Amino acid sequence: NSVLELKKVTNVKQQVVAGTIYYITLEANEGGGADKVYEAKVWVKPWLNFKELQEFKFVGNA
What we know:
It is a single chain. The protein is mostly beta strands. It has one domain (1-38, 56-62). The chain has strands at residues 5-17, 19-29, 36-45, 50-61. It has a four-stranded antiparallel sheet, with no helix packed on it. The protein starts with a strand and ends with a strand. The model has no long low-confidence stretch (mean pLDDT 95). InterPro entries: Cystatin, Cystatin_dom, Cystatin_sf, Prot_inh_cystat_CS. GO terms for molecular function: cysteine-type endopeptidase inhibitor activity. It comes from Genlisea aurea. Belongs to the cystatin family. Phytocystatin subfamily.
């Protein structure tokens, strides 16, 4: 396991469902070397205090 250091968020899209799904593109670094691009999908239902990371995947090099 490695620790990712967030460098920057490059894009955010949202979709309203039973709550909101956020599609987040970000650049992160694993402690040396080039930054890499990842995509995350987060489902939020604020009235239930619910947050769930549904997907987190490597996309490519920054």
